[in-house]
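FAQ: What does a ligand-bound record look like?

Like this one, built around uracil:
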Amino acid sequence: MKKKILRLDKILAHMGYGTRNDVKKMMRKGLVTVDGEVIKDSAVKVDPYEQIIIISGEQVKYREFVYLMLNKPAGCISATEDEYEETVLELIDDEYRVFSPFPVGRLDKDTEGLLLLTNDGDFAHNLTSPKRKVPKTYYAQVRGQVSEDDCESFKKGVILDDGYLTKPAVLIINNSGPVSEIELTITEGKFHQVKRMFQAVDKEVIYLKRLSIGNVSLDEDLELGSYRELTEEEIRNIAKL
Ligand code: URA
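The answer part, i.e. the structure of the complex:
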């Protein structure tokens, strides 16, 4: 069991029982007990994993971090808030929003598929740091006949519109035709990278969906716009990357 000693008002605010001030007021009213004893001093420190905290008759099930897998739909942006656009956070219920999760990396507004959200900064950093070279696999529909030559070009790296030479990527052609279907695995995350890689070989991505990040794949049972918590195993697998 983790050892963690925190101020009681901080614990309760983190768990979504209100601001630190709201919580202080509730404590002054005698609504909070720790191990059966009413605590009115909000500065008291407790171990939320070991001690039983009850607020207004409800036991607090403390957790520090949340890890969510969202099947992002097109039409919302990978941000926590925006004045004009719908954000992915608007798809998340208050039960999780109280933990202030944020998207790990970005998908374009019109891209669908796997987006992770967490409030664990180290976890997010591990996945997005360029040094880690975490593979990300996308499914795309591409206007134009994708060929073995394109696979070779992507393997060597292609030059994007700003002169950047991409790192080796693995392109698998599922179906080649006027609109081709492909899967592409890249280990970096430049702005609009997949779309710009196809532009570099004179083709256009008309649909894009992320299938996996490292060894975590999008849960097929998640409908567009729905999400679930990552399993312990998925969190462990990501931590190993
Ligand atoms: N590459 C893109 O072009 N867009 C995305 O959303 C993700 C990768």
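Follow-up question: can I read anything off the structure? Yes, for example: Helices lie at 8-14, 20-28, 94-97, 121-128, 148-156, 193-200, 232-239.
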